[in-house]
Design goal:
mainly alpha, Arc Repressor Mutant, subunit A, 357 residues, single chain, 15 helices, DNA-binding, 3 domains
Length: 357
DNA sequence: AACACGGCCAACCGCCTGAAT
DNA sequence: CATTCAGGCGGTTGGCCGTGT
């Protein structure tokens, strides 16, 4: 004998609940308590199935349900719990008094998930996004001007020295400004980006200059690699000292700069530095700019596995996703994507605030 | 004013689990 | 042990509403 449906479908109402139905259900439960949802609707005089009644009660009519927008603390709790529990909405709801699993699920899908994606964080793994860049977003976005085909996010054109410096700055900010460590999503985001940068630098330490050249796209001539400053001395990274930074970086001094300003300065700096770097990568001998760059050619080369650097293809420890990406490539991709995204957000929101000291 | 579009969210659907028989 | 079924869960849908054109 097969399993029978939870309730008779015939003659039972579906769709939105009326105020009268709500009243019947509430009055019945207040008088008799809930349980045995199968027989409840009949006893309460409702033309609904038990399942529908249970859902209406647990998600809407229950007296201890908290209404209104999610607070910042609740949002943070959801993110933290989701990073541990995954899509266990009921388990997450159990730790958020007054919130239902349905409500949390909806809030996650409509707000938090998108927010994390915008920040370059995979909402499933809560790690930096490892997927390859979204081609369409690259093609459609315009970072500097509409006439510039955007290649800002294309891996692997990321100035390695820039990664070094960015990580150093992140370290110095963290060490010198106690307020930098505060519990919010942005902090988690920066913790992630910092970790990615540091990981990348460890890789850089293990690579020689020739490897760096190989990381550039095959269609981008790099006849003059000295245009990219590359230092083998990483002591500054390990022991960041802002006082030793060039004078042009003084506005990064965390002692004199608010967190938001500092982040904006860093974002802007990264964007501009990387832009200059990319122009050199394209053709250091000529005066070519990014607008002259053969974007489609670059793109097709990147998507061709054979164009991947040899040392990446031969990396037995790498895990391929989508058939062609290695850990190294995806990490570089993430850094690049992160910088692109953050700069784009600043441009979109016009939120850049200059710090003058 | 009319229409299109997208975001939001209540409600439904189908599957799973575990207790009861 | 096998079957049944209530309750619970996560994924999905569809209607409402605000906003833009």
């Amino acid at each position: 004998m097969g399993r029978s449906p939870c309730c008779e479908k015939n003659g039972l109402k579906k769709g939105p609940w009326t105020a009268e139905e709500d009243q019947k259900l509430v009055e019945y439960i207040q008088k008799n308590g809930y349980g045995n949802w199968r027989t409840l609707p009949k006893n309460a005089g409702l033309q609904r199935c038990g399942k529908s009644c249970r859902l209406r009660w647990t998600n809407y009519l229950r007296p201890d349900i908290k209404r209104g927008r999610f607070s910042f603390e609740e949002e943070e709790t959801i993110i933290q719990l989701h990073s541990v529990l995954g899509n266990k909405w009921s388990a997450i709801a159990a730790r958020l008094p007054g919130r239902t699993d349905n409500e949390i699920k909806n809030y996650w899908n409509t707000h938090i998930r998108k927010k994390l994606l915008r920040m370059g964080i995979d909402p499933v793994t809560h790690s930096p996004r490892l997927d390859l860049l979204d081609i369409s977003s690259i093609l459609s976005s315009s970072i500097y001007s509409p006439s510039h085909t955007n290649m800002f996010g294309l891996q692997p054109v990321v100035n390695p020295e820039l990664l070094r410096l960015a990580a150093s700055l992140l370290s110095s900010q963290r060490n010198q400004n106690p307020n930098f460590v505060h519990q919010n999503v942005q902090e988690n985001h920066f913790r992630n980006s910092h970790q990615v940068l540091e990981n990348h630098i460890v890789q850089l330490q293990n690579q020689d200059h020739q490897t760096l050249i190989q990381e550039t796209p095959s269609c981008a001539p790099l006849s003059n690699p000295t245009c990219v400053p590359y230092s083998s001395d990483n002591s500054q990274l390990m022991e960041p000292n802002v006082d030793q930074l060039p004078s042009s970086f003084s506005h990064f001094n965390p002692q004199n700069c608010q967190l938001n300003d500092w982040q904006n300065n860093l974002d802007n700096f990264i964007a501009n530095e990387n832009y200059v770097y990319q122009q050199h990568i394209i053709d250091p001998q000529s005066n070519l700019t990014s607008s002259d760059f053969d974007f489609n050619s670059h793109l097709s080369n990147l998507s061709t596995p054979s164009s991947s650097p040899a040392h990446l293809n031969s990396n037995s420890n790498s895990t391929n996703i989508n058939g062609s990406s290695t850990e190294d490539e995806r990490e570089i991709s993430y850094c690049s994507n992160l910088f692109k995204h953050e700069y784009q957000e600043i441009m979109d929101s016009n939120a850049f605030i200059s710090c003058n000291f």
